[in-house]
Fold each of these.
Amino acid sequence: MDLYLSTRHEGDRTVIEVGGEIDVYTAPKLREQLVDLVNQGRYHLVVDMEAVDFLDSTGLGVLVGGLKRVRAHDGSLRLVCTQERILKIFRITGLTKVFPIHQSVEEAISATD
Amino acid sequence: MTGVQAAGSAAAAGHAPEGDGVSLRFAPLPEHVRTARLVAVALARRAGVEEGLLDEVRLAVGEACSRAVGLHRSAAPGEPVLVRFAPPGERFRVEVADLVTGGPVPKQDEGGDGESGLFDPSGVEADMGLAVLRGLVDDLEVETVPAGGVIRMGWPVHQPDYS
């Protein structure tokens, strides 16, 4: 299975829907997408991970990189994830304290810091 | 070397033959890591690792292989990464060996959450890969040997499925 990405704008928020496997092979595609969005001036990103089947540390690294980029512009990067096996990876790396993780895209879009 | 090779024993790697274990050697290319994960899950299932642990096997073998691929790409791109699955036994045992001499991956300052400096994805990922492995796998050894490094992992086995 490959990685698929689709992007839509909701006001000043951009929702990136991610599906498939995020690993050492596919993560560069996600990195490129996040970098492109920031370069386009989109600094409030919501990454919807509900259709992700597999995530490894390479994927985590890309998300951390995205977070650093948007924070440099006072932006935000929120995750949508309810899958226990994916959440577990955020938990064991301590990244649940770094990323706001939401139950739904709607919740992430309406969230404010 | 650009492909994946399966071998019936670990003899090809210069180690003693391990009976009916399985070895996988692959060129250090990111696209082969998924193949290694798929093989690991298939063998774990067959060995009798319980269904609830297969995700852990998949992630752990993937992490170890990604790390080895990263090390080889920077220091030994022509050398294959080797994964050895021990023959059926009391535990499902996997070894992932890299041939990169020079010890463990250099540590980065923090987990990538800092505000300063440029993002270095390779460093963050290499560090996070080990963090994931340490948090995930109870039976884990990370060893540096003169020829490189070996990550050994094991999982309990319940009912083998040889169907």
Note: The longest helix of chain B spans residues 54-75.
Amino acid sequence: MSPISANIRSLTLTLALAFLVTSIGATYWTVLASDRLANDPFNPRLIAATNDRPRGAIVDRSGAPIATSAKTDAGYSRSYKDRTLSQVVGYASTKFGLSGVEAAYAESLIGQDPADPASIWRARYLGDRGPAGQVILGIDLKIQKAAADALGGRKGAIVAIDPRTGAILASVSVPSYDANQIVDRSKQESAWAQVTADPGRPLLNRVTQGLYPPGSIFKVVTAAAALETGFDPTKKLRVDDPYQADKSWGDYFVRSASHAHGLFDMADGFRLSENIYFAQVGLEIGAARLTDYARRFGVGSTPKLDLAATKGQLSDSGTIDRPTLLADTSYGQGELLVSPLQMVVRDIAPGPIGQVISPNTAKTLTAMLVGAVAGPGAFAFGAKIPGVDVAGKTGTAENRPGQAPHGWFVGFAPAAAPTVVVAVIVENTPEGGVAAAPLGAQVMRAALGK
Amino acid sequence: MRVEATVRLGRGRFTELSLLAWVAALALTGFVAVLATETSSFSPAAVVVPLVFLVLMVALHVFLVSIRFRGDQLLLPIAAGLTAIGLVLVQRLASDLLFQQLSWSIIAAGAFAATIVVPRDLTALARFKWTWALLGVLLLVAPLLPIIGREINGARIWIKVGPGSIEPWEAVKILLVIFFAAYLEEYREVLSHSQRRIGPFPVPPLPYLVPIVAMWGIAMLVMVFEKDMGATVLFFGIFLAMLFLATGEAFYAIIGLALLVLGGIVAYQLFGHVQARVDTWIRPFDEDLRFGTGYQLVQGLFALANGGLFGAGLGNGMPDRIPVVWSDFVFDAFAEEAGLAGAVALLALYLVFLYRGMLIALRAPTMFLQLLAAGLSFIVALQTLVIVGGNLRLIPLTGITLPFVAYGGSSLVTNWMLVGLLMRVSQVSSRMRGARP
């Protein structure tokens, strides 16, 4: 027996164990992680399955085509009809994967039922797939066009929802991109390089993924919290610009946009969008109550949706931990960030979705929001529609110093029994919310057929 | 450990011949399957390439019988089977490279035959150890030289020879094992029976370690300049394994591994290409990586996922989505089309190769031959583990070839020479034991 025989045996055993671990690794990827990876939206095999057979169509609520497949010499190719829906519908590219609805319903669109696990195995081993499914969106192309026209070329986003069903009627995010180029083999490399390098980030769906400070539209949340805490909306509060609660704030003040001095009740506060009024309301009801209602209205949680969406934040730390932050948060500044979708779904419109407050509170708030549009000197006058009561609120959200503020409008109509809820954001507009309100009106008119 | 039946020494080499019949079946069905999915019309390449290869393998067998070679009968069929899988995969993944790879396998077969005949006395290899060390260093430095050196895909490990280019480090790995085996045989006693200890740790007599550490250090330095992590890991592995084989001190190996991890951390901080590899390994699916440096690995994992238990079938998968699949990702490509079953079978072939190689080492008559055979078998096993582990995302990916299977001439030729050397060692053992069952 040679003195090194034992060493040879130990080394062989070590290597054999490493082979065992490697086989376990192979088992993991080929079998255990297989289903998850096989259905990953970036897996080119999912898309390749539609090269020799048509991919299912994506249509609007009335069946008008939005994305279709047509036969070409090199197999079936995808074409997208509406550039304003690029971020919603997405793309199905062999090179860059899937996004949007193309990703969310990837399996149905290639005729694989996600609810039927056996179909995945049939597809894999027998190449046997059912007929490709069609995806019907809640989008109404007529309202979509009105929203796209309203925003024009301006950076920003518009989303309209039917509060009775939760269906998204229109969703526009500007700037957009041409998904046809992303799926075109001859142009896709340069097109991809262009859209990913664009500082305007056209791939981003600003409706669900854009994060903005809400500004004055958040006063709706503060008011709802106050009303349900027993705060009397008719009580007059003294507003003197600039405002601070006590000397401990040092040189920190809440400012009034109109340099107001006088007595305000809640309706005045909404009509004139008075920051100092709502700061005082927030301080009176306290951080815990405001935090509770902000959460109820969905700030800081991802909306339930088929598309990628961000959750926003109440503050950098997730809590309101100091009086000045409480005051600022109460009128929608501070460290708040929300997406346009969050501001619309969480509205106060009565209906199966959105309503997170009592019907009584909703009624009181709605009356004040109608006043914010139609009352004397109301900021949101641009949202008026003849013959229809519109409830709404503008917001002018300050962002980084030196940049023009973002203009917001959220609203719904008809005020008594809404059939459409809308949120509009126009980025960096000097007029702020005043610029956004008429855009909201245009979209609601299209939805109401007025 | 009873595999006597297969090493029973008669006049013929029937075990080898009957195993080659399996290789023939594998090669023919593989080529026909791949070509059947690619073209509807019959292509002569489907028969010509595997036939040329099989004639070559049978010729090697006849050659061994004719010189009454009495060594191992399993290694040749295993190497032939792996090379056949390699050819099928080249046809599947990069058919324009097929004839090049076939030519390389002819050269490899020639190199194998030469190794069987040329060194008349294997022990003589040990006498020229410093010659091998010098030759190894020269080969390693060659790619850094201005006129003949070449940089491909960011790694400067090629030298230009005629119309093509070769990777000299592939040969260096064998030279390194010969040198280590010879040196360690000579100084094993002093290295393994060190009197001085600090606590439980042996303190090696440093002067005796200088030549091997220097040899290893030169290899590492050059590899840093040539930017090839795979070869660096392989050299380091050979160094540690040989040291452990000779001394039996697991402590050396543990310290060595610790140094490797430490070196990895330092390299991560210093070198962009190392950092990219590690980041890709940790989070390949992240948005910023999956279309960038992680693209290749992610596509490889998709290929594995498509494989499932029994695979998509040869020619039915989409492994061509993986960039440079024929050199770095053949394992994933094979696993996609042959499934977990095929992947494990492939690993089993390497395991049997390792087992045979180590058995030869155990039976070798001198310590030099023992170290030589164990070191050579170790190379094949480690190379397989490192590249397959990289493909499976068990360890960071390094550009090392899957022995015999991956596309690449230098690798194929040196690995066949390695098989030749192993069989030579097994022949010496069987002579020593009287050549009778």
Note: Residues 171 and 414 of chain B are 6 Å apart (CA to CA).
